[in-house]
Amino acid sequence: MKLRIHFLTALFAAFLMACSSGPKTNFSDYVDPFIGTGGHGHTFPGATRPFALVQLSPDTGIRGWDWCSGYHASDNSIMGFSHTHLSGTGGPDLGDIMFMPTVGDVKIVAGSKENPDEGYRSRFSKAKEKASAGYYEVHLDDYGVDVALTSTRRAGYHQYSYPESAQSNIIIDLKHGVSDGPREGFIKKISDTEVVGYRRSKGWAMDHTVFFVAKFSKPFEAIEIFAEDQPVAGVTEKKSKNLKAALRFKTGAGEKITAKVGISGTSIDGARLNLDEEIGGKSFAEVCQESKDEWEVALAKIAVKSGSDKDLRTYYTALYHAMVAPYVFSDVDGKYTGMDRKIHQVKEGEEHYTLFSLWDTFRATHPLFTIIAPEKNDQFTRSLLDKYDQYGMLPIWELHGNETNCMIGYHSVPVIADAILKGQSGVDAERAYKAMKHSAMADISGLNYYKEMGFIPCDKESNSVSKSVEYAFDDWCIAQVAKKLGKTKDYEYFTTRSQSYQKYFDSQMGLFRGREINGRWNRKTNPLESSALGSGDYTEGNAWQWGFFAPHDVEGLIGLHKGDKQFTFMLDSLFEQQTEMTGHSTDVTGLIGQYAQGNEPSHHVAYLYNFAGEAWKTQARVRDIMEEMYTDQPDGLSGNEDCGQMSSWLGFSALGFYPVNPASGEYIIGSPLFDEAVVTMGSGKTFTVKAQNNSKKNVYVQSMTLNGKPYAKTFIKHSDLEAGGELVFVMGPKPNKNLGTAKADRPESKAFGNNAVAKLPAKLYMPFVNEAGRVFKSDKRVSLASTQKSVIRYTTDGTEPTAKSPVYKASLKLRKTTTLKAKAFADGFAPSPTLEEKFVKAKFNVSGKGFPKISLEKPAGKAYNPGTKTLLDGQLGTENLRDGKWSGFQGDDLVATVDLGGVKPLTAVSTRFLENTSSWLFLPTSYEVEYSKDGKNFRKAGKLTHPVPTSHPVIRIKEFSQKLPAGTSARYIKVRARNVGTLPSWHLGGGSKAWMFADEIIVE
User: Fold this and answer.
1) Is the pTM of this model over 0.70?
2) What residue stretches are annotated with the F5/8 type C domain (predicted)?
3) Residue 923's domain spans which residues?
C-alpha cells in the first residue's frame, strides 16, 4: 500500500513538473504569470483560461492600490485562494469565495501581514511558489501544506497535500473580498462531501453575487459555521453578512484532498451545472493538461520562430495577459445575469461576456482580438449590445453586470465600429448604430455642453479636455458606420463633431488646453501638472500626455502645428522633457520625458512620426519602449496591465506595426522585435512577418517587401493581413530617412477624408463679466466682454436676451439684487449660450474689513478648507469643485454662525451648494436658518428639505434661500445644512462618507 502511494505521489509530482516547468517546446511554456505582479502591474499569478470566469489565485493583500488583483510580489504571506480576480486594473474588486487549507486549531480571521500568526494567514517562500499557463502551486510554510491550483472556464480545482494531522481544515471565507464590502453570505452543507452557497457584495461592482458549489474528494468529519466571527452551534446552513465555515478532516502524511468548485453569476444550480459539465469526474492532472492545451491553441495564433528566452517570456506572457479578459459570464446552459439584474438566455452556440475596461482596451486589445480571436471579439461585440438593451446605454466600464461609470468616453463605440467596418461582427448593424448614436447624444458627463457649444468648458466639467478629444474620436467612429449605412446627415453631423478637439489647441503652447465657457483659456494650466479622474482638465495625465490625441485626424493635428517640422519638434520635446510632474497621478508611470508608457493616453504617440514623414524616429522610439518598459521580471510592466491593453501594445509592436486609429483598418509601421513571426488570421490564412539582419542595434528599417514586391509605405492595411502573405523588413543600425517621406507613402488620417462635409453652424462663446465678486453692499459696477468680435445684448429682468434686447456699450450700475443675462451676436454665427449671473446686495461688507464674523461648529475637511472667510468673501464657487472657493464637509453638517456686528433689519438668508454626485458631492437634505439679537436665544425662520437622488443628476449649483419673517431685525444668523451622511447604496462608493460643498452665505 505504501509502495502504491509513493508511486502515485512520484507520478503526480512528475506531472506537476511537466505542467509548471520543463523544457520549452510550446508557446505556453514561455508564459510567466508572475510578470506584472510586482511594481504597479496589478496582475495575479493564479490559474485561469482564455476569457474565463474563474481566476483561481492567491490573495496576499486586499487593501491598497498595488493590491487591486489581491496579490503583490512584495508579500510573503497568503490569506487564501479565491476564485475571481481583476487583471491589472487600476481599481480593486472581486476576490470571491476564498478557500484556505490549514492545520490545527481553527482560526476564523485572516490575520495581518505583520503578524500572520494571529489568523489563518500563512507565510510562504518564493522559492516554493510556481506558476505557468493554467497552473499555480505554493507551499504554505506555517501548515506544511502544498497547494496546487488549476481551473476550467467556470470552475476551480484545488489540490491540498497535507501533513499528518489529527485536525486538518479548509476554511471557506465568504466575507473576504478585494476592497469590497460583503452584503450577504449563504452556506449550506449538502452532504459530507458537498457544500453550496453564495457571496453577495458591494464594491466597484455595486451589486455583485457569486454562487458556488464545492465538492471534496474526502468526506469532512465536521463543519462549523461562523456568523460575525462567532460559532453558530448545531446548524448546517446559515445566512449572514460576515459568514465563514471550517471543514475538518484527519489526514495522513502527504494525503491529498481535492476541492472542485463551480461558480456562477445566476444560481447555485448554475454553479453545479458548470462544475459537472466542465470538471465532472476528471482528475486534477487532466484538467491541468486541458488548460495548458487551451492556452497553447490561443497563443499559437502568433507563432514567433526566433528570439531570446527573455524576449519570448516577455512576449508570450503579454499575449497571455491580453487574453485573460473579458470574462465569460454565461453558464454552460447560456443563462446569465444582465445589467437589469434579470436572468437572460443567450442563443444556442453563443456566450455572454463581462469585464469591459473599454477606456483601455479599445486602443489595441480589441483590435488584437480582430486578428487572433475574431470569433470571440464577435461575441464581445454582441455582449455590449445586449448590455445596451438591458441598461439603455452602451457600457463605459462594465463589471459582472454592473456599470461602474469608470473613466471617460463612450468607448464601446470604436470596438463595435471596428468590428462592423471589418465585417467581423455578425450583428445587426442598424441595431448597433442605434446604440452608438444614443450613447453619443446623452446629456451626461459634459455631453450637454459638447453638443450645444462644440466643447466642454473647464469651469463647468472636470477632465474637460480629455473628455472632448476622446468624444471627438468616438464620434468619428460613429460617422464611419453612418457612412457605411448610407446615413448621410448623421455622417456629416458626427464627422463635424469629430473636429471639436481643435477648439482646445493653444497655438502658443502647442498643446491642448482647457477653455472656460466664455472661450478664455484656463489661466491655471501648467503643462506638467497631472490630474486624475474627476479633477483638473485631463484624465490621468497632463497637457503633454494628452497633447497628441486625435488618432482619427492626425493630419488635422499636424495642420494645427503649421506643418510636419513643428509637429515633430513637439513630439521630440515630449520624449525629451523633464520627467518631473506636479499633482502626480498614480497611474502616470513608465516615463520617457513626459511620454508615459504606463498609461494608455500615450500608447499611440510614438507612431505619430510616420504621419509627418519621419518614420525612422518612430522606429527608434518604439524599440526603446519595448526594451525599457517590458521585461520578464515581476515588475516587468511599466504600469497597471488594464485588462490587456499594456500587453496588447507589445503584442502589436513586437510584430512591427500598431493600430494608431483602432477603427481605421490601418496599422502603422514600427520596428519588429523578432526575426520571424507567423500570424494565423481568422480566415485561416497566415501572415508572416520577417526581419532580416535584426538585432538590438539594428532597429531601423532599411527597406520592406510585401509578398515579394518592394513596399515603401509606412503603414499596412488589415485587408493585407486578412489576405495572407509575407511582410519582410530589412533592418540596419542607421536610419533610412527617406523611407515614408513621400505623402503617398504615409498613413492617411483625415477626419473628413476626401469628401466635402457641410459644417454645422458656428457658435459664439458666452460673454463674461470682467469683475470678480457677485455679492456687494453698496452699488456695483459690472462690465461685460467677449473673446470674439460680437455685439453683446443683455437683460436685467430675468428674461432671455434676444436680438432686440439692449446692446451693451458701457458698464452697468447695479443698485439692488439683480439677475443679469447676456448673449453675444454676430453675423454668420448662431447666438452664444446665455450668460446668467446673480448679483446680490447683502447686509454686510464683503471687503474683509470689520464685520461680519463667522464661526463653524465643525471645520471644513482638510482637503477642501480655504478658510471660513471664503463663505463670506463675495467670490462665488463655480461648477469646478477644485476652484478653491468651496468649503467641503465630509460626513459632517455645516453649522455656521454669522455675527453682523450689530442688530440690522434682515429679509432673507441663502447659501449655495454644489452637486456633483460622481465626485461624492451631495446637496444637503435640509437647510435651516435661525436668527438672534443676543447670540443666545435663537428663533427659527424655517426649514427647507431636499430629497436624496436615486441616480447621478447633472452637475449643478443650487441655492437654498430662506425668507425671514417681515420686520425681522437680528445681529446673529445661524445656518444649519444637514449632510446626506453616507453615500446611498446605488452609488459606487455606497456607505462611504459623502461630501457637502458650500459657498456663499448671503444675508440680505
Assistant:
1) yes
2) 886-999
3) 853-1003
